[in-house]
Amino acid sequence: MQQKQVHYSDYLQLDKILNAQVLESDLLQQHAHDEMLFIVIHQAYELWFKQLLYEVDSVAAIMQKPALNDNSPELQTVVHRLNRTVTILKVLVHQIDIMETMTPMDFLDFRDMLRPASGFQSWQFKLVEAKLGLKYQQRHAQEYYISQLRQEHIDIIRRVESEKSFIELLNAWLERMPFFEEGENWKHYKPVSGAPAAGGNDPFWADYRAIYSGGLAEAEQSNQQYFDTVFSDGSSPAQEGRQLSPRACRAALFIMLYRGYPILQLPFQLLNSLLEIDEQLSTWRYRHMSMVHRMIGTRIGTGGSTGRDYLKGALDKHYIFAEIARLTSFLIERRKLPVLSPEMEKRLGFVG
Amino acid sequence: MQQKQVHYSDYLQLDKILNAQVLESDLLQQHAHDEMLFIVIHQAYELWFKQLLYEVDSVAAIMQKPALNDNSPELQTVVHRLNRTVTILKVLVHQIDIMETMTPMDFLDFRDMLRPASGFQSWQFKLVEAKLGLKYQQRHAQEYYISQLRQEHIDIIRRVESEKSFIELLNAWLERMPFFEEGENWKHYKPVSGAPAAGGNDPFWADYRAIYSGGLAEAEQSNQQYFDTVFSDGSSPAQEGRQLSPRACRAALFIMLYRGYPILQLPFQLLNSLLEIDEQLSTWRYRHMSMVHRMIGTRIGTGGSTGRDYLKGALDKHYIFAEIARLTSFLIERRKLPVLSPEMEKRLGFVG
Amino acid sequence: MQQKQVHYSDYLQLDKILNAQVLESDLLQQHAHDEMLFIVIHQAYELWFKQLLYEVDSVAAIMQKPALNDNSPELQTVVHRLNRTVTILKVLVHQIDIMETMTPMDFLDFRDMLRPASGFQSWQFKLVEAKLGLKYQQRHAQEYYISQLRQEHIDIIRRVESEKSFIELLNAWLERMPFFEEGENWKHYKPVSGAPAAGGNDPFWADYRAIYSGGLAEAEQSNQQYFDTVFSDGSSPAQEGRQLSPRACRAALFIMLYRGYPILQLPFQLLNSLLEIDEQLSTWRYRHMSMVHRMIGTRIGTGGSTGRDYLKGALDKHYIFAEIARLTSFLIERRKLPVLSPEMEKRLGFVG
Amino acid sequence: MQQKQVHYSDYLQLDKILNAQVLESDLLQQHAHDEMLFIVIHQAYELWFKQLLYEVDSVAAIMQKPALNDNSPELQTVVHRLNRTVTILKVLVHQIDIMETMTPMDFLDFRDMLRPASGFQSWQFKLVEAKLGLKYQQRHAQEYYISQLRQEHIDIIRRVESEKSFIELLNAWLERMPFFEEGENWKHYKPVSGAPAAGGNDPFWADYRAIYSGGLAEAEQSNQQYFDTVFSDGSSPAQEGRQLSPRACRAALFIMLYRGYPILQLPFQLLNSLLEIDEQLSTWRYRHMSMVHRMIGTRIGTGGSTGRDYLKGALDKHYIFAEIARLTSFLIERRKLPVLSPEMEKRLGFVG
């Protein structure tokens, strides 16, 4: 059978893409040159948001499989696509440079014509955040946020919020890492500190806690309590306000500490790519906020908000993988690390 | 009268934009994950190409006005929009990073399904080149280029090629710069070298030619002949194979040399932005070529070309403002510049 | 006389530059690979800080001349060098990507060996801020900041703080812009609103205030009071806590509003480049803060600070040209702008 | 024992770094403002070149170990540091933006004072190329290149050229990859095509060759011969003009094809990072060439070369990992890949 002939313009549906720019200022017969840029850049952003959703969905689908660590190429795929997400976000940050070629006076030429439309109505970006793990109650200015969206989009986001987010899948994956099952590895571990067991029953973490405590300066003592909160088993899977359980946190910290072992190399890359995603999202929010401030100052945005203040509030609260980031506080120097037994080392490596 | 309510999704026609991605691999029931990226990135490129065309059209419209140099804000607008074009091109170059997250093996999953579509079928990019000033006969591999396009797009490009391009408008603008009309300025100029007049009848250029010649090293003598070709008046407005006339070239060089005078500041910025556009276009072609090579090696592209070789041929030939760039060869040190008379200086400044 | 022969290595003093890396971890015989990167990147930053100081000094020297606006190329030079400063800052922001290739575990290998050295001891960066206009009392955590520096560097910064900063020179330059001298221009202005004079005695600003007020939404009324604070003449040159006088602010706003006139084009570019400098400085601080957080979490920095909190405090307070940025709040649509008289327009243009 | 107190300025030897800028134009009492930038940017480049050498040396030291693939963290370290090299090169490319803020006229102010110094005298960059694998005879314009360097630097480069370069170490590492030893794996492979053995004696490559040939279009037949050249064993370890042996090439292609298996994941990342290094080096050379052209046009460089032509010649010839890049031409679609036996799959995975 003959495959059909594909043409670039049809394949990319350029008739749709290139005919989707109608300027309000033209409709009102007051042509404002820069409105075209305003439309095109937002469309470009939305195209990329669609791609981000597509990638996040695809990695979530993989993370949902129960047997992810078996000898499959899938963890590699997860890392690869998360790194792609980072690369896309870097271009989205850079793209703000283009928006900044629009001066405030040029924006004023058509700004009032857009009311009450607003960038806050970009439900796709909110969906990206929700899929990664940002909960409704963690959001800054929740009511305002809801008031800006159409019911159909609120419904989509709500449904996503009720499903397992990426960070929840990550938590489950960390919890079931085969290396960490009870009794299997730790029985080979030779305790050194004689410290009482903490963070579960195994002596490894008791040793680790003792070494960590010994290295804390006086002014850092609050980290000690935080350590116990993060790593010691409580009754609930993850404590109030946290999305990662003590068991998952122990696994994540272990990965950071012993990342050199073959079986931990990709898991380490995965954790690292999540921190990069958060950093790029955060840089994007920051530059976006600065740009809005530069564009409208202390005036009210087209959607009725004091745009910059909303964005500023989101800056601190919308970190999604903050619990991973904070594990950095609990690292100790490589030369002080508890020594693993040969049996453990073997299990962390390739077939000999 | 109540203005109608605008909503973000409607305003941006997101129903069109976000529903224009149909994967060939899905139609053939062999889903290839990375095809979505392939579609989205090309659509993003085409959106930005539309914006580039829009900006180039707008500056060409301004350059067409006969009285551009009168006290109007329009030259500023030209410079501003050309700088925006540079900023957009920088993001387009950066965007190649995203494409490079697709490995050759991932591309192979759907590459054959796209035949005979090809990036060479992007008529918008060719239109950008044509509007700026690239002629059909200057193009590398002309027949191949024609064979890839639909008749309707060939017609559009041909029509544009028959109209005044930006570089032709630039030539006209440089030729009629008010400062350079015969007799008006140069009569105040005090010749120093006693060299015979060159490049028109005025003694300024005779002096300049003498100073320039004196600074050439032996190995650079070929520049002398090139100097005379570029600057001395011949019968035709611009010599065979050139798009800028001697008169226009003299104006452009004068702007570079005496850019400090108020009336020359924006003209200098304009010339500079054109060189930046060429450089970004060229960087884009170069990275594009490298990316294609990395993706398909020495295989034949989906459109039937040896992709990389075509792109490589374009690299050297598609400089649009090369004649401006080469004027750099004719600069002399500031401290050797012919001194202008007070009358001339006055005409180059603001109202006193 | 024969000019001496210059060699690349001697000219660049590469013997000094390339032999200035001694690793503490080597001295302690515990070689930590990444310490070399740590040293080199900080040296690269300090080289660029030296260049920033050099450029800021050079533009300040120009701004100090009393007759800057006469037909000289110098304002162009100021804009050019400020734009270079922006370009350098963009690379400095990008350079953080390199630092982020150092993982927290790799940093731990030598972190303790550096105490009590700290990035806060970079006096050159503080000097850049001080020269631009950041006052000691505006700084976040002043005592900590002083405690980190050597007396000789404190002395340098103090001396700079006592001299005219760039923003003060800017204020003086704006105040004496020739276009704004009393009686000269405004006598030709035809008032329209009949509003009582505000912001000095001239009717132009009375009109402007009336138009601006008419466009404010109810929720934006606080801008009205702020408008009067910023623009109306008080007794002191600049009010408490402000570095720009009402007269200078009026000139700056006028430049933004009527930037199209030839004489205002470079002044507009100058104001714009200052906003870009602030934005890049701010992006640098933000990414720097994120990077420190990612590197040490909630631990204490080598210099004894909770690094991230200090940096976070600086984020909001260290905007230098915030008063320029906030003028954006006072713009009105182009089509509502008061019409200037032909006499005024003539004075804003080139020689006819 | 008390550790000594470290101070930022001493640690970074800022007295050396910040006092190594002496302007020739100052010595000649003709201060040229932009010469400072010229010095500082070259010093920044040389600092980073030193870092590149340091990283390349460190990965070469690891690659030299005979037992690299045993369960050690070292391959991860190699990949990590090569990726850092890429990150550094990206900043070096970006840094050209700063150089481009120097206009040709500004360069002319001090250009002649630098003769005969020239960027070609940067021996560190040549050393980076040599350490990675660029041979003297592969260099463009070899005599010119030698004529520019001091004997001591020529000696250093020559010595490096006589040692094992990174690409030679890579070749050895690929050749001895444990998976590929004769008889061990391939005996489990089930041949399908019945094609005669090629590329060694094993039936896997005979099958692969048959599948590959079947997918070649008529115009691509030259790839077939190239395939046999690259993969089939000849007498010498690597054929004339090649740095990778057929055995090493087979290993590299196998890694690209089956990169999903755990044991191949890092080797794939390693190959990929080498292609990125080449691409960044090449982009750097391209932008450097464009910048030189823009700066001096067709004039002779300070070192006596027609700068741009030299740089242009290097562009095509100085690819170091071109043999890896060209393997892309030999990929086949994933769904056509020969199926590995369970025994082989097991050897490609982690401990079960």
UniProtKB/TrEMBL annotation, chains A, B, C, D:
This is Tryptophan 2,3-dioxygenase. The gene is kynA. It catalyses: L-tryptophan + O2 = N-formyl-L-kynurenine. Heme binds at residue 288. HAMAP family: T23O (MF_01972). It comes from Niastella vici. It is an enzyme of class 1 (oxidoreductase). Belongs to the tryptophan 2,3-dioxygenase family. GO terms for biological process: L-tryptophan catabolic process to acetyl-CoA; L-tryptophan catabolic process to kynurenine. Keywords: Dioxygenase, Heme, Iron, Metal-binding, Oxidoreductase, Tryptophan catabolism. Heme-dependent dioxygenase that catalyzes the oxidative cleavage of the L-tryptophan (L-Trp) pyrrole ring and converts L-tryptophan to N-formyl-L-kynurenine. Catalyzes the oxidative cleavage of the indole moiety. One of its GO terms (molecular function) is heme binding. Its EC number is 1.13.11.11. Substrate binds at residues 38-42, 111, 302. Pathway: Amino-acid degradation; L-tryptophan degradation via kynurenine pathway; L-kynurenine from L-tryptophan: step 1/2. Homotetramer. Binds 1 heme group per subunit. Its cofactor is heme. Signal peptide: none annotated. Pfam families: Trp_dioxygenase.
